[in-house]
Design brief:
CATH topology of the largest domain: Rossmann fold
Distance between the termini: 26 Å
Number of helices: 12
Number of domains: 4
Helix content: 10-25%
Radius of gyration: 41 Å
Strand content: 25-35%
Structural class: alpha+beta
CATH class of the largest domain: Alpha Beta
Strand order of the largest sheet: 1-5-6-9-2-4
Shape: elongated
Number of strands: 41
Oligomer: single chain
Length: 697
């Protein structure tokens, strides 16, 4: 956006319409140098030969080798034979401009026959300095009747007479020569100036003598560009008088230019702020217009600059804690953007309004954030039972990671484990969900995009103190019950050698309801943390699942569980029965049995094993009595060992370790555990789906 003083709106619009003008002007000036008619005294930025044929040029060692090219817009041709000389100015980089001699010639090549090149010889009579230039034909031109050649240009001293001679290679008897007096350059007007910062103006004083035309301008590569309205003023100042010229911004390329009123007058220029520190401060950045071309669909941050001066900046990423422009912006290491023609780009970025570019020029810098306020993805968190449920929506395919953290001193560092979910490439925008266990009441969660190199972490802290106070009464008795369960049922999970068993358990389910999903996660968490089971659950391995794919991940886990003599625990529900019947209809109709979801893939896997052995070795089926009944178990799956939870929880634990059931005294504790889990599910079903409080980091 444009920043400036009041009343400069029209000038700002004019500047915006000239975006990229410094680059375009430099290119246009360089392209037009050889096309102007002789005698204009135009500036030349490099030695160059232009011709109507493919050429190469060689020169005396005292003359830098010129480039050779075809003119893009050739001027009117000369009638051969011809040799014309005119005055120009040579302005090489980092060198003061000096007078030079331009040469244009025309040769009747068809009449000469066999001419492969030509040679120009320059002799500066006053200094007796001699230089030669040869132009060769690379290949025979289709229209070779006339050679049209222009050379820009031979540097010469002011006031010197230069003799130019031409001959062909090989010599065909054609010789042309002309001399030209390089007129002495007239000095421009003399003036003095005073900077008046309180008036934001520059006073220009003209000494006694002729009137002088003065103006303020911005110095570019070859010319001085006028200031935008209403600051553009070109004033005729009589000798012995002064004028006050206001400026818009104090920038290093702000110059004063003076000339006499007559046509093609020599000019004097002074740029007093080039080394002025005040010119590299806030006003420099106010004079720059930033065009935001960032794209969340391409994961790219891109900004183009249009400025009064030619700037060579460095751009790096930084992130702001808040959207306030006064907030500090923390630098992100190794995030330097690439630059091409004043356009700065950086790829693999999660474009966000608070993930910004810091532009630096020496000791001065400026922070510019993306102009679009929307983000490509959003997240909200809700407390559901004993889990934090993250709702993620993204307009583009992406991968997201989340981790619990505890706030300490204003910081919140992520803690292991890391939870990841991926939206596949080519899928329609939709909602993704992540379930995280609540380890400590008051936990926060960090969420960020993990498929890019530069992303800003978002911190969400659900408020459980007021809306979810009932969870505290749930967790305390649940912890007590779990302690009793562990003490009373420890023997049910001991191996024969007395070492806690670590056989893997692959837990499969159908995500048909939030209540069922919550019970699955609660049981899996207790089996892992409370009883030491090596539980494999897709919700805990979403990153590996997204990389490998549904079927490869499931078959790899099934193979691993089989090799380690583990168990596949299939948690059934009424929704599972409906999905199973739908899956059977698909198989009977000739559709592939390997579905692309975990449940369909599990049914395909189990169906294959039942068909081979007649019984699913290593498979166990269990169901929660509140969500299912024995009638919901299909006839095909009834040969599997089946357990009703929580009544048969001790028997299930014994089956998982491969030993007789645990003592009956655990059943009452298991029933109480199930009641508490159900109470947590009921509590969570009435909670809002938006976070109670959210912050950013």
């Amino acid at each position: 956006m444009r920043r400036g003083r009041p009343g400069t709106g029209r000038g700002g619009e004019r500047r915006r319409s000239a975006m990229g003008r410094p680059v375009l002007l430099a290119a246009a000036a360089a392209a037009a140098l050889l096309l102007l008619p002789p005698g204009t005294g135009t500036a030349v930025t490099r030695l160059r030969v232009s011709s109507n044929f493919e050429c190469r040029a060689t020169a005396d060692r005292t003359l830098s080798r010129p480039s050779c090219r075809r003119p893009s817009r050739p001027g009117p041709p000369l009638e051969p034979p011809a040799l014309l000389l005119s005055r120009a100015r040579l302005c090489l980089p980092l060198q003061p401009c000096q007078p030079c001699l331009r040469v244009r010639l025309a040769l009747p090549a068809a009449e000469l026959g066999g001419v492969r090149g030509l040679q120009l010889t320059f002799l500066e009579l006053g200094s007796n300095r001699a230089v030669w230039l040869r132009v060769w034909q690379r290949r025979r031109a289709l229209d070779s009747s006339t050679w049209q050649v222009q050379f820009d240009c031979f540097p010469a001293e002011s006031g010197q007479q230069v003799l130019v001679s031409l001959r062909t290679i090989p010599d065909r008897g054609l010789a042309l020569s002309h001399s030209h007096l390089v007129a002495a350059e007239l000095s421009g007007p003399i003036f003095t100036h005073v900077w008046v910062p309180e008036s934001r103006a520059i006073e220009v004083w003209v000494p006694e003598g002729p009137a002088v035309m003065v103006r303020l301008c911005h110095k570019l590569a070859l010319e001085c560009e006028e200031l935008p309205q209403p600051f553009h003023r070109q004033v005729l100042v009589p000798g012995g008088h002064h004028v006050s010229l206001p400026y818009e911004f104090l920038v290093p390329c702000l110059c004063i230019e003076a000339s006499y009123p007559h046509y093609d007058s020599p000019r004097s220029k002074d740029c007093p702020f080039h080394d002025q520190p005040d010119a590299y401060g806030p006003e420099l950045w106010s004079s720059v217009h930033f065009h935001d071309y960032s794209s969340s669909s391409k994961d790219q941050m891109a900004m183009a600059l249009s400025a009064s001066c030619l700037l060579h900046l460095q751009a790096t990423l930084c992130w702001r804690e808040t959207a306030d422009e006064a907030a500090p912006c923390h630098t992100i290491p190794n995030s330097t953007a690439s630059e091409e023609q004043q356009v700065y780009t950086l790829d693999k970025v999660d474009v966000h309004p608070q993930l910004c570019f810091r532009f630096s020029n020496g000791n001065s810098n400026h922070v510019e954030c993306p102009h679009q306020p929307e983000t490509s993805w959003n997240v909200s968190v809700s407390v559901w039972g004993l889990q934090l449920r993250l709702h993620l929506t993204s307009r583009t395919p992406a991968a997201f990671s989340a981790a619990l953290c505890q706030r300490q001193g204003g910081q919140c560092e992520p803690e292991a484990p890391l939870y990841t979910v991926t939206q596949p490439e080519g899928s329609a925008p939709g909602e993704l969900a992540l379930l995280l266990p609540v380890q400590i009441l008051g936990s926060c969660v960090l969420v960020w995009r993990s498929d890019v190199h530069f992303a800003r972490k978002q911190l969400l802290c659900p408020d459980v103190s007021r809306r979810h106070f009932g969870l505290l009464g749930l967790v305390l008795p649940l912890g007590l019950v779990m302690a009793v369960l562990l003490l009373n049922c420890r023997s049910a999970w001991r191996a024969h050698n007395g070492v806690p068993g670590a056989r893997p358990v692959l837990l499969l389910y159908s995500p048909d309801s939030e209540e069922h999903l919550g019970l699955v996660c609660a049981l899996a968490e207790r089996l892992r943390t409370g009883l030491g089971c090596d539980v494999r659950l897709d919700l805990w391995e979403a990153g590996g699942l997204g990389q490998a794919g549904t079927l490869p991940w499931l078959y790899a886990q099934r193979s691993c569980v089989g090799r380690q003599r583990g168990t596949v625990l299939l948690l059934w529900s009424r929704g599972s029965a409906q999905l199973f019947r739908r899956w059977q209809v698909g198989v009977a109709g000739g559709l592939p049995g390997d579905a692309h979801d975990i449940f369909g893939a599990a049914m395909a896997c189990l169906h294959g094993e039942l068909g081979v052995s007649g019984c699913g070795s290593g498979w166990i089926l269990a169901y929660f009595s509140r969500l299912c009944s024995p009638r919901d178990v299909p006839q095909l799956l009834r040969p599997l060992p089946t357990y009703r939870l929580p009544q048969q929880l001790p028997s299930l634990l014994g089956a998982l370790r491969g030993s007789p059931p645990a003592p009956r005294r655990c059943s009452r504790v298991g029933w109480l555990l199930h009641r508490l889990i159900e109470a947590g599910a009921e509590e969570g079903s009435h909670l809002p789906r938006t976070p109670g409080a959210a912050a950013s980091t």
